[in-house]
C-alpha cells in the first residue's frame, strides 16, 4: 500500500473516454500531474462515433488492446513506501511512425471502458468458417446486410443444437463485452474471472494490495454512468493527495468477499458482478467522497428510458415524452451554463 502522501502525484490515466477524461479533470483539480494515454485518434471513447469501420477487425479485436499501445505496467513492491509504475506506450510522430516512450508514474488509473472488448463465444468451427462473422461492436447500419442471403450452400451451413440449420452470410455476435487488461502487469494481484469479475476490487475501484496507486474508473455497468465515474475520479484524486484514506487491507478484502458471496448467493453469474442496477448503491458510493446523491429527475429519466425502450425499441429515441423532467434537468447546474433552457414550445 502506498504511504507516500506528498500532495502532488504524477498520474497516468489509461483511456480517454468519459471515465478517463473525468479522472484527468479531477486529478488536475486536486493538484496532480496527469498524462492520458489513448489508443484512438481522439478522445470520447464510445461517444467518438466512427462510421468508417471497413478497416476494423470484424470481431472487434482491437489490435492495440493486445498490449502495444499502453505497453506494460510494472508493479512495484507493494511493501515499498514509494510504489512506482513504469508505463510503456507508443506515440505517433509527424511522419506517421511510432516512437516507444517509457515513463515512470506514482499512480495509474485504468479507464479503458466496460464496452471496449467484445465477449466472444466459443463455437466449434468458428476459426475455419469461410464466411463473414462480426460482433455487434462493429455494426453501424443495416444496409450491408440487406438481400445478402442467396442460397443454401454447404460451406456456409450453420447447424443448431435442435438439428435445424440455415446457411448464413454473416454471423453477428451480440454477445456482450468482457473486461481485459492485457497491458497491465500486477503479478496476479488483479485478475478477471469468467470475463466479468475484475478483482479483488474494493467498491469496484481499488485493488486492496495496490490502492490507491492503482485504481479503475468505469468498471460498473447498469448505472447512470457519468456522475458515478465523476465520484470515482474524485475519490481517487483525494486519496492520492492524502485527503482521504482507504479502510485497512483486511477490511477492504472482507468487504469484497462479502459482496462476492452475496452476488453468488443471489445466483448472479460472475460476468455480471459489476452490473449494479441500484441507485442507492450509487448514493452510498458518493458518500465516500461527499459527492451529491443522484437527483430525482435523473433517476426518473433513466427509468423512463428503460420503460420506453421496452415498449418500443425501434422508436423510443425519437420521441420526447418527459418534458417536465427535462425542464428540471436543464435547470440543473450540469446543463444551464452550457445550453441554457431549451424551449419545447417551438
Ligand atoms: C452501443 C452503446 C451505447 C451506449 N449508450 C449509452 C448511453 O446512451 N448513455 C450512457 O450513459 N452510456 C452509454 N453507453 C455506455 C458507455 O460505455 C458509457 O457511456 C461510457 O462511454 C463509458 O466510458 P468509459 O470511459 O468508461 O469507456 P469508453 O467510452 O469505452 O472509453 C474507453 C477508452 O479507453 C480507450 N482504451 C481502451 N484500451 C486502451 C489501451 N490499452 N490503451 C489506450 N486506450 C485504451 C478506448 O479507445 C476508449 O477511448 C453505451 C455503450 C455502448 C457500447
CATH superfamily of the largest domain: FAD/NAD(P)-binding domain
Helix content: 10-25%
Largest sheet: 4 strands, parallel
Q: What's the number of domains?
A: 3
* CATH class category of the largest domain: Alpha Beta
Please write the string of helix (H) and strand (E) elements.
Answer: EHEEEEEEEEEEEEEEHHHHHH
Structural class: alpha/beta
Shape: globular
Query: Proportion of β residues?
Result: 15-25%
CATH architecture of the largest domain: 3-Layer(bba) Sandwich
Strand order in the largest sheet:
2-1-6-15
Q: What is the distance, rounded to the nearest whole angstrom, between the alpha carbons of the first and last residues?
A: 57 Å
Any ligands, ions or cofactors bound here, and which?
A: flavin-adenine dinucleotide
Annotation field: number of helices: 7
Structure, briefly:
The chain has 346 residues and is an alpha/beta fold.
What can you tell me about this protein's structure?
There is one protein chain. It contains 7 helices and 15 strands. Mean pLDDT is 83; it is low at 1-5, 63-72 and 75-81. The protein is of the alpha/beta class. The chain has helices spanning 18-29, 225-240, 249-265, 279-287, 296-311, 323-331, 336-339; strands at residues 10-14, 33-37, 73-74, 85-92, 98-105, 107-110, 117-118, 132-135, 157-159, 165-167, 170-173, 177-178, 191-193, 197-199, 214-216. The longest helix has 17 residues, at 249-265. The strands form 6 sheets. Strands 2-1-6-15 form a 4-stranded parallel beta sheet, with helices on one face. The chain has a 3-stranded antiparallel beta sheet with strand order 3-4-5, with no helix packed on it. It folds into 3 domains: 5-117 and 178-287, FAD/NAD(P)-binding domain, CATH 3.50.50.60; 132-173, no CATH class; 295-346. The chain is globular. Residues 14-20, 37-40, 45-47, 64-65, 69-70, 111-116, 183, 218, 225 line the site of flavin-adenine dinucleotide (FAD). Belongs to the FMO family. Its cofactor is FAD. Residues 10-128 form the FAD/NAD(P)-binding domain. GO terms for molecular function: flavin adenine dinucleotide binding; N,N-dimethylaniline monooxygenase activity; NADP binding. Keywords: FAD, Flavoprotein, Monooxygenase, NADP, Oxidoreductase.
